[in-house]
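Regression check, flavin-adenine dinucleotide case 386:
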Amino acid sequence: MDFSLNDEQKMLIDTVRRFIAEECKPLEDEVEHNGFLDNAKAQALHSKAKALGLYGMNMPEALGGGGLSNLDRILCEEQFGHTSDILIRRAFGNVYEPLLHCKGAQIDRWLKPAVAGTRTCAITITEPGAGSDAAGIKTHAVKNDQGWVLNGGKHFISDGEWSDFFLVSAKTGDKDISMFMVDKGLAGFTVGKDQKMMGLRGTPHLELFFDNVQLEDAALLGEAGQGFKLAMGALNVVRLAQVGARAVGKASHVCEMMVGWANERKQFNTKIGDFQMVQQMIADSVIEINAARWMVYHAAWMLDQGLDAREQIAMVKVHAAETLGRVVDRAVQVFGGMGFCKELPIERYYRDARIYRIYDGTSEIHRGVIAKSTLKKGAALFDVNR
Ligand SMILES: Cc1cc2nc3c(=O)[nH]c(=O)nc-3n(C[C@H](O)[C@H](O)[C@H](O)COP(=O)(O)OP(=O)(O)OC[C@H]3O[C@@H](n4cnc5c(N)ncnc54)[C@H](O)[C@@H]3O)c2cc1C
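Current build output:
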């Protein structure tokens, strides 16, 4: 068992870290203040990242991506957690793995442009009446001579405004669910309001409406009735990367700020870091961050070995998201009034952290998955020697 990182991995982390410090961090306050990222700045950020080979690093090299292993990708995603959601999207891309199921002409039309960042894709599963119960959707597609006719609607769709096409889940039978690539601009496809959120300022979250949208046969991902399963499987790694690893990165970043403040801020003629109750908040944060990090790395390693890591990723989703929540809450406490004040970014991190326990499956849903699997498989889920 080797826990060390090799020189290439260290260099990769260093490159991403430097890019975030030099190119993303200076934009954070502006995004927070304006509630959006200026288009020209978004384009510039994208071009610089792309020139360094930092866009679409999770995608295969043959498609123009970075060809990173799951573990190497996780190391980058951890660094992404140090900055704001919208800046990660523009600089590094959220190129979703389900698109890798594109075949034939779909590859040039949807997959390759997504990897290149010339066409951005959003993933749309959630509806007002179907969130945790992702199979309970009402959006449906009916076969006709020209392909499929799509009706229904989605909400909370991250980055919907910027996206050129959407991966949409729709019922294609009583129980069958399929995935479709739906281009913006098709007749009958309209975009609703931007649903304002507690955090993640700068990333729009949109409602989408489909009213008799005619789709070509080519818009279907995988086989009818199978695409949803394919997509949900591929979303596992997205959950590990975009929630698990980013939560660890964000918690580390916040912890660093908390430690810096504890070493600087003086009360009663001494550093607040000298008080044992402050030390406990730091110690608990460090313990939990390290535990979450190794869970993330282990799950990524399992994926690289071709092992089924579904349960491990569910555990990561719960533990990393909840660790972030506890760490950022302690950070507000250690910063005192300044933790609550908008002059420092701690209150922003506090707001941004809250969503980690909700999207990509709530903590309750993942706990349910873990409990059911454990009741079925027993010690295999908590004792590596079994
Ligand atoms: C900022 C943001 C961005 C998002 N981006 C996207 C996106 O890009 N694409 C997309 O498709 N979706 C997106 N979502 C949707 C997100 O994935 C859902 O909000 C999430 O899955 C929860 O669904 P819900 O909000 O309908 O809550 P509900 O499913 O209504 O859950 C409400 C509560 O009930 C609990 N609950 C539900 N079922 C069970 C159960 N079986 N056992 C125990 N407890 C249960 C939940 O844990 C939760 O506490 C986004 C949401 C937000 C807020």
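Comparison notes: The first strand starts at residue 121 and ends at 124. The chain is about 50% helix and 15% strand. No diff flagged against the previous build.
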